[in-house]
Design brief:
mainly alpha
């Protein structure tokens, strides 16, 4: 992949990530608290911190990605599936960063 192709790829990934994040955020958050579902998640999770809950959710996607990478020669996943799993992992990392920075204020 050339530098130009990679730059185009990055733009595509970032745009897709923003679009997916905004769609999911509208489903799980509210205007006053974008991390609402992670705070509420502490009520039924084994974790008592929102960032820990987000990490727990991230791990599910990382396991899917690990399986995809491990089995890539045996089972080729659809582009949509790959984009969904990678996109969800990126979004959870962004959420975790936001939660950690918010807590450190």
């Amino acid at each position: 992949m050339t530098k130009e192709q990679f730059d185009n790829f990055l733009s595509t990934v970032f745009n897709r990530t923003i679009k997916m994040f905004n769609c999911k955020r509208d489903e799980y958050a509210c205007n006053d608290d974008v991390f609402r579902s992670f705070r509420l998640g502490t009520g039924f999770s084994i974790h008592d911190e929102p960032a820990q809950v987000a990490y727990e959710y991230l791990c599910k996607h990382l396991e899917s990605i690990r399986t995809m990478v491990k089995n890539c020669e045996e089972n080729v996943e659809s582009t949509e599936y790959i984009e969904e799993k990678i996109g969800d992992a990126i979004n959870y990392l962004i959420i975790i960063e936001g939660l950690l920075k918010e807590k450190n204020k």
